[in-house]
Amino acid sequence: MADLLAGRVSTARAGSTVADGIAVSEPGRLTSSLLADHAVEILVVPEAAIEQAIAMLLEIEKTVVEGAAALAALMTYPERFAGRRVGLVLSGGNIDPRTLSVVALRGLAVAGRLNRLRVELDDVLGRLALVADLIAREAANVVEFGHDGLGSSGARSTVLELRIDTLDAEHAERVLDAILAEGLTAELVDW
Question: Which tens digit of pLDDT belongs to each residue from 165-178?
Fold first, then answer.
């Protein structure tokens, strides 16, 4: 912490951050003095942890918090807080709606609840219905799909690009297994 307060370490990073309200390259003089006088420790957290914290607060607490850096620190450094009573300051509800939607969707993807599924099949009547039925039988939900005959291995085949809702990553694997068991070619695609 002393190096950060003395200005010898910078927290500046390339690109933007969802926690733009606290994204400073170094603490100001007044802030540095207060932190040093009270022996306050500064923790730097990765962007992914802040996004995960925002998504968790939104989903679990139904609370919009712009930075959620305090929860991100708790999740990133659990050993520093183990066995202690911890209070978190949550603030900054003025997050851009577009950013919030992206963070929420990414949170679902990271949790394995929103998945990309690619299925290649013969382009004949009823094949799309078969895939939809297999997904429904596994109690998953199709939220978006695209149909592209150009990206397939032949003129009589097609590729389905689907987004599916599942309970978690294990559930998504069960959906994939059901499709593969039907003899179709399919894969879960990383975001």
Answer: 999 999 999 999 99
Q: CB–CB of 115/64 below 8 Å? A: no
What's 36's domain CATH number? 3.40.50.1100
Q: Among 75, 108, 141, where does a domain finish?
A: 108
Confidence check: pLDDT of 158 > 80: yes
Order across the sheet with 114-122: list the strands.
141-148, 157-165, 114-122, 185-189
Residue 60: Cβ-neighbour burial (10 angstroms; 0-12, 13-18, 19+): exposed
Token couple for 119: 């299925």
- How many domains is the chain partitioned into structurally? 2
The pTM score is: 0.72
Is the domain of 117 the same as that of 104? no
Q: In three state form, how does the secondary structure of 112-164 look?
A: CCEEEEEEEEECCCCHHHHHHHHHHHCCCEEEEEEEECCCCCCCCEEEEEEEE
Question: What is the chain's Cα-based Rg?
Answer: 23
pLDDT, one tens digit per residue, over 1-44 is 445 555 554 555 545 788 877 777 777 889 888 888 998 888 88
Last residue of a domain, one of 57, 85, 108: 108
Which residue segment(s) compose the domain that 169 sits in? Answer: 112-189
